[in-house]
Design brief:
- This protein is mostly helical and 77 residues long.
- It has a domain at 25-77.
- Helices cover 62% and strands 0% of the residues.
- It has four helices and no strands.
- It has helices spanning 3-14, 28-40, 46-64, 72-75.
- The chain starts with a helix and ends with a helix.
C-alpha cells in the first residue's frame, strides 16, 4: 500500500466530507503576505492551513465568551 493510500484511508474513515465551499477575496498585498508565510513555514496545504487558522480563532473566541450564570463584575465581589 502506498503512503498516499494509507493517508487517504485514515482520513476518510474518521473525518466528514467537506462539501461546502467558502470564497474570500484578498488584495495583492494580503496574498503576498500569506504566500510568504506559507513558504517560510513550509506549509504545503493552503486550504487546511486556512481552515485550521480560522477555526482556532473562532474556538478561542467562543471559549472566552462562554455564557455564565453571573456577570464578571458580580463574580469578582
Amino acid at each position: 500500500m502506498k503512503k498516499r493510500d494509507r493517508i487517504c484511508a485514515k482520513s476518510s474513515s474518521t473525518e466528514t466530507k467537506r462539501q461546502l465551499r467558502m470564497t474570500c477575496l484578498l488584495s495583492e498585498e494580503e496574498q503576498r503576505i500569506i504566500d510568504r508565510y506559507l513558504a517560510k513555514y513550509k506549509i504545503s496545504n493552503k486550504s487546511r492551513w486556512f481552515r485550521e487558522t480560522i477555526l482556532s480563532v473562532i474556538h478561542k473566541s467562543m471559549d472566552e465568551d462562554y455564557p455564565t450564570l453571573f456577570e464578571e463584575h458580580d463574580m469578582r465581589r
